[in-house]
Amino acid sequence: MLLMHKAICCCLFIFSLSFASWGQQRVSTSLSLTKVDFFHGFEYGQQHQAFEWNVGFEYGINRSIFQKRFFPKLKTNGFYNLIHKPKINLGLGMQYTYSLYRFGTTTKDIVQFHELMGGLRWNVGNQWRFGQTLMVGGLWENDFHTLVNKRQTYGTFGYIIQIDVSYAF
Amino acid sequence: MRFSWLLLFCLFFGCDKQQFSSVEVVGHAGNGLNIQNSIYQENTLQAINLALGLNGISGVEIDVQLSLDQQLWLYHDEKLEEATTASGCIASKNSDELATIRYKSANKEKLTRLDELPFENYTGFTFYLDIRHFNACENQILNQAHFIAALQPIIDGNSNCNFVLITNYPNWLAGFKQKGWKTALNVFNLDELKTINWQNNPFDAVVLRNSNSTTDDVNWIKSQNKNVFLFDIRAPKTIRQAMKKQPDVVIVDDVKAALIEKT
């Protein structure tokens, strides 16, 4: 099950990266607050007219830095910009993320998170852009439950509040 | 460039951790109290199940209140309007009404009755029952005999689990101790503990807020043959600080963060 999740996520990520260049490319660095942790990361995206498609890698700051327990996250998102002007974009979109970390010493102690969210994103600027994203949606946590000796998934409401700085090529 | 990668590697995988294997990790109100990364509301069956399923946890602390019809319900706050769709106090309501109340949380969990917990599945775990002796709606102290009568079948009927009764009302300690139950006294700090008559108010452990205790305090209490439980422990840094004091138990809000520190 764990391997399957990893495989799906990696495929999605590689698939996203393999898109041929179809618009303006940009890279960004972001800081986000989620229900699970603060995340810092990097994103690569392309924009063609009103459409944006991005993939990114992030790490959980509390777990990775303050607890030295690597907490990676892969994400992919797409937006349709309702306002699409040279210096300002405001779009609606969706995002899927997959993240995991290990809290114990065995592979059973790996906890995984899936997030599927929708929300708003806006950015201002020309080549250098400052942006904000606000998303809400579902958060699913998958743990190995020692009482029933199998992995179980628990769902709840999740959110992402993000700020980012990007550079458009 | 080569050294910057090395720096990043050390940042993520540095191995200067201390070992806290003797410190037991206990979930505060199940899987954490008022903590944003908890999937479930505190003091619910779901939160307790989730916490006790984590590899390495020793037990959970839960808040126990007595209803008007003398059933034990799990709830943290004094008044129901703090976290649920209802208002008033548990001590002023019957179980029929309490059973219909739901939390305002995303999952809308029901209030949980203590005897609803499947203790047969929780063999070896310790339940730290924080006994709420006060009815804030009527401004009165509850009858301890009613509490004992409600607790007795649960504690006696689930010998596969361990129970520790926590109270901040010293007058109730002797009554619990007479039943042969383990007791813990919740005090503000060591100064308050020293004002209490230990002969008349017997207890096995002391519960202290982490921010109000020092390593010396912990060592002194342990030298008196009492166990020490520290609580109000949230961020990773605070968890580490608490564990360094070497208490017997840390009652934590972020259980997984504490298990990371323990391992």
Write a brief caption for the model.
The complex is a heterodimer of chains A (169) and B (263). Chain A is mostly beta strands.
Task: Tell me what the structure shows.
The complex is a heterodimer of chains A (169) and B (263). Chain A has two helices and eight strands. With 169 residues, chain A is mainly beta. Chain A has one domain (2-18, 28-168): Beta Barrel (Porin), CATH 2.40.160. Chain B has one domain (20-262): Phosphatidylinositol (PI) phosphodiesterase (TIM Barrel). In chain B, the strands form two sheets. Chain B has an eight-stranded parallel β-barrel, surrounded by five helices. Chain B has a two-stranded antiparallel sheet with strand order 6-7. The mean pLDDT of chain B is 92. At the A-B interface, helix 2, strand 7 and strand 8 of A face helix 1, helix 2 and helix 9 of B.
Low-confidence spans of chain B: pLDDT under 50, at least 5 residues?
none
Largest interface: A-B, 32 and 30 residues
User: Helix and strand succession of chain A?
Assistant: HEEEHEEEEE
Tally of separate domains of chain A: 1
Low-confidence stretches of chain A: none
Overall average pLDDT of chain A: 89
| Coarse shape of chain A | elongated
CATH domain class name of chain A: Mainly Beta
Main β sheet profile of chain A: 8 strands, antiparallel, barrel
Spatial strand arrangement across the major sheet of chain B: 1-2-5-8-9-10-11-12
Structural class of chain B: alpha/beta
N→C terminal distance of chain A: 40 Å
Question: How many separate helices of chain B?
Answer: 9
* Estimated helix fraction of chain A: 10-25%
Strand proportion of chain A, as a percent range, falls in over 45%
Rg calculated over all Cα atoms of chain B = 19 Å
What's the structural blueprint in terms of helices and strands?
The complex is a heterodimer of chains A (169) and B (263).
Chain A: H1 2-17, E1 24-34, E2 38-48, E3 51-60, H2 61-66, E4 72-85, E5 88-102, E6 110-125, E7 128-145, E8 150-168
Antiparallel strand pairs in A: 1-2, 1-8, 2-3, 3-4, 4-5, 5-6, 6-7, 7-8
Chain B: H1 2-13, E1 24-28, H2 45-52, E2 59-66, E3 72-74, H3 95-98, E4 112-113, E5 126-131, E6 134-135, E7 140-141, H4 144-157, E8 162-167, H5 173-178, E9 182-186, H6 190-194, E10 205-209, H7 215-223, E11 227-233, H8 236-244, E12 249-252, H9 255-262
Parallel strand pairs in B: 1-2, 1-12, 2-5, 5-8, 8-9, 9-10, 10-11, 11-12
Antiparallel strand pairs in B: 2-3, 3-4, 6-7
